[in-house]
Amino acid sequence: MARSVRGGPETEDTEMPKNPGAQAVTAVRNTLYRAYLKAVEKGLLEAGAAENFDISEPRDRNHGDLAANFAMLWAKPLKMAPRKIAETVLAEVEDCPYIDKIEIAGPGFVNVTLSPRWYAEVLLAIDEAGDRYGEVETNKGKKMQVEFVSANPTGPMHLGNARGGVLGDTLASILQWTGAYVEREFYLNDTGNQVDLLSKSLEARYFEHFGDSETYPFPEDGYHGDDVTAHAKAYAEQFGDSLLKADEAERRQKLATFALERNVARMEEDLKRYRIEYDVWFRESSLYPTDVDEALEIMEKNGALYESEGALWFAATKFGVEKDDVLRRANGFYTYYMGDIAYHKNKFLARGFDTVIDVWGADHHGHAVRFASAMRAMGLEPERLKFILMQLVRLTQGGEVVRMSKRTGKAIALSDLLDEISVDAARFFFCSRQCDTQMEFDLDLAVRQDSDNPVYYVQYAHARICSILRNLEAEGITPKAADGLDLTLLTAPEERELIRHLADLPNQIAIAGRDLDPSRMTKYVVETATYFHKFYNACRVRGEEEGLMQARLTLCRLTGQVIKNVLGILKVSCPERM
RNA sequence: GCGCCCGUAGCUCAGCAGGAUAGAGCAUUCGCCUCCUAAGCGAAAGGCCGCGCGUUCGAAUCGCGCCGGGCGCGCCA
Questions:
Q1: Is A20-114 assigned to CATH 3.30.1360.70?
Q2: What is the domain class of A120-137+453-570 according to CATH?
Q3: Residue ranges matching CATH 1.10.730.10 in chain A
Q4: Given A4, A282, A333, A446, which is the most exposed site by the fewest CB atoms within 10 A?
Q5: In Å, what is the separation between the CA of A304 and the C1' of B64?
Q6: Using H for helix, E for strand and C for coil, what is the string for A455-488?
Q7: Can you tell me which residue has its alpha carbon closest to the C1' of nucleotide B19?
Q8: Cis? peptide before A97, omega within 30° of 0
Q9: Distance measured from the CA of protein residue A531 to the C1' of nucleotide B35, in angstroms
Q10: CA–C1' distance A497–B2 (Å)?
């Protein structure tokens, strides 16, 4: 697939698709600033005004396509009333092929109406770029990693993992569209206390299976889920009762490995069903001893370590945090934190990522803050490590909050969710809110929500477009190449609104990549559908005069292209019929 | 106590590197298929943008202080 090599080291250095939205802004800025300089030359205005004024879409369409605020911004430095500045500048403006009209309005806004030629060029640019329309190069040449889900393999994945999975996966796609080389990674906590606890839980269940619940009573804070019982049973059925008399350490180790591998296989399968595939499954256990030793060596060299009360400490206070942390307990075992430090040392120093993004639950934010100090202690710029701290999904059923916890066994599994709603709906839903909003997920509603979900609204727009193309095709009308048409015939407000919005895709992708905000894409594509539906209701394609019909057909086709590109980023299917 | 996130229409949420009259969906009411997919479109109604002060020509947007909700502050992960 072409998409999978996007941004990869093997990608040819092909020319970037045109970005008509950015071209318009640049043209307007240059035209206005050049006029200002001319006015300065003539002695009409003082010199020194900044070129970086704001050019943005006005909220009210009656104000034109783009609005510039330089007159208000310059009022103070130029010691002149905003409207007067605007008038003086506009008197010096020269013709620009993208600009039709410039007006002064309100307190001193300069409103620009773009030319039919610009509108036509937007469509030509989309047609030319095709499947690549929307690509930008804001992260060109960067090697990035997105680590997400990284659920404890001690049980099935829950809804929080579902949200993190979609956010991380989609963000990775977006970053690829901004020109970066991106790897998706799952960090597997296959060692440590939680695994230990799992092994003790398994041990108890194993003995129970053979009718002995006395010798190894179930640990108080153990994993109560049915899956643990199932693992023990499966082991017993597969390998018999040999472990009853085995050495305790060996027994626990065998049971834990058995369960872990089953869980990992299941997670991989569930995620695949969810259209998520990783480049790397990184095992925590592989960090020992090399990465841990190397990380400690660097920290030692930077004076970040000391020993106290038998434990090894990280002097985090020296690196901008309030409290020191234990890295190796008095009992000789390393803490999770040490593992995580070694892990990130590996990401940056061994594997050379420029930027790493970790998608974590918001309950880890304290850890995220502390991590900046660990980065400094290793001599790495903290800015290279970014976090998406995602608020957890609150699951409700019949109006009541369902607590999610692996240990109590009450978690709603990701696989259960996908039995209830489509992957398209789930992906779109989890990507439709900003990461830092707390989501409420009503299980009862989720099933009914199907016909109500915005994903169908978007898919419907695409299906409608395909239907128009099909119908005309059946009448022997085939779409002509865009560059041979008179696209300036598209002058209806609904047509212009739609075209302007299509022109904005590259910009939206750049912002989504900059802000690490995948929800930008769902919002954009819902709006695309809205503008298309409005156009559809206002303008007809079939039965219009040949030139206009072909121009509108092209607009339909290219709107479909844009929807397809964005749904592709979201990994949501793009049906031709509904 | 300290730290992070959130408070916008009845509900779910946009808008936030400041910009002109604050938006959408759902729900409510009323319209639109002899016409390319009505899973659609249009209209009405609905708001001290949590509160206060400040910065600014201009604040939902930035700063400070409150109030309310969520989450963290372990030799757990």
A1: yes
A2: mainly alpha
A3: 120-137+453-570
A4: A4
A5: 35
A6: HHHHHHHHHHHHHHHHHHHHCCCCCCCHHHCCHH
A7: A69
A8: no
A9: 20
A10: 50
Task: Quickly tell me which residue has 């193309």 as its tokens.
Answer: A469
Q: Which nucleotides of B are covered by protein (CB under 7 A)?
A: 3-6, 12-15, 17-23, 25-26, 35-42, 57, 69-77
The side-by-side arrangement of strands in the sheet containing A305-308 is A305-308, A311-314, A325-328
Its pTM stands at 0.94
Protein-to-nucleotide distance from the CA of A109 to the C1' of B20, whole angstroms: 8
> How many Å does it take to go from CA A119 to C1' B32?
30
pLDDT 10s digits, A422-431: 899 999 999 9
ipTM metric = 0.95
Protein residue nearest nucleotide B2, by CA to C1': A322
CA distance A8 to A454: 32
For residue A433, give the nucleotide whose C1' atom is nearest its CA.
B13
- DSSP string over A308-320: ETTEEEE-GGGGT
Q: Give average pLDDT by consecutive 10-residue segment, chain A, 578 residues.
A: 40 77 95 96 94 90 92 92 95 95 92 96 96 96 96 86 93 97 96 91 95 91 90 96 94 95 94 95 95 97 94 92 91 93 96 96 88 93 92 69 54 78 90 84 68 89 97 93 94 95 96 94 96 96 94 97 98 95
**A107-145 pLDDT per residue, tens:** 899 999 999 999 999 999 999 999 999 999 999 999 999
